[in-house]
């Protein structure tokens, strides 16, 4: 599978658009401090709703604002996969010692 080409000028315009509108993190819904250094875990990054690794496009319709740490924990998962992973687990043990 070939990776789609990514235009850096278009990417920078999309990032600027999101930065101007200052939305909260799309993954945890907490506010983002847009003035933080880009290496800070709570800094603003662009998250692809459908990851490029999964065939998503690098378009304005497919990006959202996120914290660096939230985006790194999401990885290349889809929203449905995140919801399933966040569901509470039930552990059943029937041991008699």
Automatic annotation (TrEMBL):
The keyword Nuclease applies. Keywords: Endonuclease, Hydrolase, Nuclease. Pfam families: HNH. CDD domains: HNHc (cd00085). One of its GO terms (molecular function) is endonuclease activity. Gene3D superfamilies: 1.10.30.50. SMART domains: HNHc. Residues 12-72 form the HNH nuclease domain. InterPro entries: HNH, HNH_nuc. This is HNH endonuclease signature motif containing protein.
